[in-house]
Amino acid sequence: QVHLVESGGGLVQAGGSLRLSCAASGRTFSSYAVAWFRQAPGNKREFVAQISWIGSSTYYADSVKGRFTISRDNAKNTAYLQMNSLKPEDTAVYYCAAGNYLRATNPTNYDYWGQGTQVTVSS
User: Fold this and answer.
1) Who contacts 110 (Cβ-Cβ below 8 Å, separation ≥6)?
2) CA 38 to chain centre
3) Would you say 110 and 47 are in contact if contact means Cβ atoms under 8 Å apart?
4) Residue 88 φ then ψ, to 5°
C-alpha cells in the first residue's frame, strides 16, 4: 500500500515556476513508477510526466516537454514536479500516482493516487 499526498500548488503568473511535491507513506514507494497527471474543469485527466522506479528513466507529455522536470528521492519517499515557464493552459488540479507500468499514460494503469493540488496560472 502507498499513500500519496501532493503539495506545492498555488497561484502564479504566466512565465513563473512552481515545484510540486508528492510525499509517499509505505516502505514500497521505490517499487513503483510515479507519474503526474492533471485535470482541468470539464476535461479528462491528462498525463503529464512519469519517472521510473529508481529515476533512471523519465517520460513527458509533448505539451510540457522542455518546461517540466520530474524527479524523485526514494530516501525521502518523495517525488517532485518542477514546472517552469508556466502558461495559463497549465491551470489544473495536479495529481501524483503510483503504478507498475513504464510509459503508461492511461490513468487506469495506476494503482494509487493522491488527492490533488491546485495550480492556477494567471495571464
Assistant:
1) 35, 97, 98, 99, 104
2) 8
3) no
4) -55, -35
C-alpha cell at 26: 509505505
Give the E-state strand segments of the chain in sequence order.
Answer: 3-7, 10-13, 18-25, 33-39, 46-51, 58-60, 68-73, 78-83, 92-99, 110-113, 117-122
| d(C-alpha 66, C-alpha 1), whole Å | 33
C-alpha–C-alpha distance, residues 53 and 11, integer Å: 31
pLDDT (tens digit, 9 = 90+) per residue, 6-42? 999 999 999 999 999 999 998 788 899 999 999 999 9
**Helix, coil or strand: residue 89:** helix
- State the cell numbers at 28: 514500497
DSSP 3-state assignment of 34?
strand
